[in-house]
Design goal:
With 229 residues, chain A is of the alpha+beta class. Helices cover 14% and strands 32% of the residues of chain A. Chain B has 2 domains: 95 residues; 139 residues, Immunoglobulin-like (Sandwich). In chain B, the strands form 2 sheets. Chain B has a 5-stranded mixed β-sheet with strand order 3-2-1-5-8, with no helix packed on it. Chain B has a 5-stranded mixed β-sheet with strand order 4-10-9-6-7, with helices on one face. The chains are: A alpha+beta (229), B alpha+beta (274).
């Protein structure tokens, strides 16, 4: 028995179209949320002096970001940035154009090794890169823990690892400076305004194909943007 | 005068007028430009294609317009017209013209391709070799998530983050990948070659004068694929020598860590995370 009016092909088409749009939008939202991870941006305070503008950026790399900073991916490797006295999982940073950026990077992670040894040479910076206060001109590629690289600005910073036998290693963030870590310092100039991507070139995403999935392809972990201007 | 003859005259006149205009004014403006012999060859290919295409396109468009103008039926006429069967002359002309057109373009395209590979990747054993290929400058292009780097085996295998090439030089690009499939696309040079892990994809390019050119990855290779771009530079031979000497000096500290130059660079992935 058939009740009511029959559904026309036009209504069927409309229903399918609406369904496709709704499902497509939901998939898009899920993917964007997965990729962006709701990461906010960070603007460090700008100092103005006779030498021009400068900012101090303090960042760290951790082997696992922990449930406090990423409840959905607590075991992912990640960069963190210091905002005031807190460490935040934020990888989109705003810095002024034609400014000097002084970076202090604390690494709490061990060695993973570079796939391409080329990225073991610090480049694109002003003055030397220092590891625990000592200037170095290259890192053993097998010792690289991570890199901080902004390809469009020619910046490559290989990050020295915490030794396997180091005591008091940090399992997951937040990590205290009383725990085993390496301190890397470097300075670079920002140049012209622009939207520059930065990333890690060490395939450090354990469990993913070639170590380059997951946190390596998700903003808010091992890559982000340097918004200059 | 019957309709067929009128249409034919209309089409011939339109083609005679428009085809030279397209060939002279439109064709040379079609990318990729004149940055290399291969790029100029592609412009010529495109010019020939649009020149051949013009009378074909005119035929279709004019036929539609002519039919609408002369054979439009009244609103009350809902019946089919009489079938036109057995016109062997039209069928023969159609078969001959389309066959000649397609075979002609295929012959022209093949001829262009075998000259020097036409700027495309030819795999590890290039079959289409340009004159003087044995003395070409070798440069290795290494794709990786998400940047290209370049090695110069003639200069100690130094690896650089930027691509500089000497003007008026024949270059053999050896394109490979460290991880997933990328595609090296040097737009204004008319070069595009897939970068496959474990494969040396050879492409020859005969450079012209100094210029800058866009480099892009043309194969979806992960989240940051869209940011895998760069600017390459063709500079004078003197400027190239100065630049490469600076690179050799700057990257000296990692010289001992780079693997010996090889046709491809594909480290065992199990040595690394993942």
């Amino acid at each position: 028995m058939v009740y009511g009016r029959p559904v026309t092909n036009g209504w069927r088409l409309l229903a399918v179209a609406v369904g496709v749009v709704v499902v497509g939008a939901l998939i898009g939202l899920y993917v964007s949320d997965y990729l962006v991870g709701n990461t906010p941006s960070y603007t460090p305070p700008v100092q103005q002096s006779g030498a021009g503008k400068s900012v101090n950026l303090t960042i760290e790399t951790v082997a696992a970001v922990g449930p406090q900073l990423a409840s959905n991916h607590p075991d992912w490797v990640s960069y963190l940035v210091r905002e005031g006295s807190d460490w935040k999982r934020t990888t989109v940073w705003h810095v002024p154009a034609d400014a000097t950026v002084h970076v202090t990077l604390y690494n709490f992670d061990g060695a993973s090794g570079l796939r391409n040894p080329f990225f073991a040479r610090p480049s694109g910076i002003v003055g030397p890169m220092k590891v625990d206060g000592r200037p170095i001109d290259a890192l053993d590629p097998n010792d690289a823990s991570h890199t901080f690289a902004v390809p469009a600005l020619g910046i490559v910073i290989p990050i020295a690892p915490v030794g396997d036998n180091a005591k008091n290693q940090c399992g997951y963030a937040p990590c205290s400076l009383s725990m085993a870590h390496r301190t890397i310092t470097f300075t670079f100039r920002t140049g012209a305004s622009g939207h520059y991507r930065w990333q890690c070139f060490v395939p450090c995403a354990a469990g993913y194909v070639f170590g380059n999935g997951g946190p390596m392809q998700t903003i808010g972990y091992m890559s982000g943007f340097l918004n200059v201007g | 005068m019957n309709y067929g003859r009128r249409f034919l005259i209309l089409w011939v006149v339109a083609s005679v007028v428009l085809t030279p205009i397209v060939a002279i004014f439109v064709g040379p403006e079609i990318p990729p430009g004149n940055g290399s012999v291969q790029a100029a060859g592609q412009v010529l290919d495109n010019t020939v294609l649009v020149s051949v295409m013009t009378p074909v396109l005119l035929f279709v468009l004019l036929f539609v317009a002519f039919s609408l103008s002369h054979f439009r039926s009244s609103r009350s006429d809902t019946g089919d017209g009489p079938a036109d069967r057995g016109n062997s002359r039209i069928q023969m002309v159609w078969a001959v013209v389309t066959t000649v057109t397609v075979l002609g373009l295929a012959t022209f395209g093949s001829y262009q391709l075998i000259q020097d590979g036409a700027g495309g990747g030819q795999g590890p054993s290039a079959a289409f070799l340009p004159a003087g290929y044995a003395s070409a400058l070798n440069v290795q292009v290494i794709g990786q998530q998400w940047a290209f780097t370049y090695r110069y085996p003639s200069y100690g295998g130094v690896e650089t983050p930027q691509l500089f090439l000497p003007a008026n030089t024949l270059v053999r690009l050896n394109v490979t990948s460290l991880d997933v499939v990328h595609s090296f696309w040097a737009y204004q040079l008319g070069v595009k070659a897939d970068a496959n892990p474990g494969v040396n994809n050879v492409v020859y390019v005969q450079l012209k004068g100094p210029q800058s050119f866009d480099i892009r990855c043309a194969e979806l290779c992960g989240l940051w694929h869209g940011y895998m771009f760069d600017t390459g530079h063709v500079v004078t031979p003197a400027a190239f020598k100065k630049w490469i000497a600076e690179q050799v000096a700057f990257y000296k500290p990692i010289e001992k860590y780079l693997p010996p130059y090889a046709p491809f660079y594909f480290p065992e992935p199990t040595h690394r995370a993942g």
